[in-house]
Amino acid sequence: MLNDWAHQESATNYKALPSERQAALRDRLTSTIRTNTYDAATSRVTISAERAAFAANAEYYDDVFRNGRDEYAIPPGTLTDPTRARQLAAFFSWSAWAASANLDPAYAPARV
Fold first, then answer.
1. What is the reported pLDDT for 108?
2. Is the pTM here over 0.90, yes or no?
3. Domain enclosing residue 2, as ranges
4. Contact status, residue 13 vs residue 7, Cβ threshold 8 Å
5. What is the DSSP letter of 13?
6. Average pLDDT in the 39-47 region?
7. Which helix (H) or strand (E) holds 45?
8. Are 54 and 15 in contact (CB under 8 A)?
9. d(CA 79, CA 91)
10. Which of 14, 22, 55, 89 has the fewest CB atoms within 10 Å around its CB?
11. Backbone angles phi, psi at 44, to 5 degrees
């Protein structure tokens, strides 16, 4: 998300931005991720387009577990079944949401 925002603003990557702009984008990221978008009335979670990169994440994790990654100590062929790879990516996605969203409905950080 940081790189996407940097590209939208400056046609450059996040690491190439001045430190002040990086800090502002990090604050925006924190606010975006911490905001709980669960609606108790409808029992739905709304995921913004910015966070809805599931397909890209699913492809990334499929590659990691299919082809392996020495830096993660994951050998090639760890997970080759496409259905199970998608399920694993979904687990990672929902786990990340549950671990990062503030579950206190009164929490509403200021947007940058």
1. 54
2. no
3. 1-34
4. yes
5. -
6. 84
7. strand 44-45
8. no
9. 14
10. 55
11. -125, 150
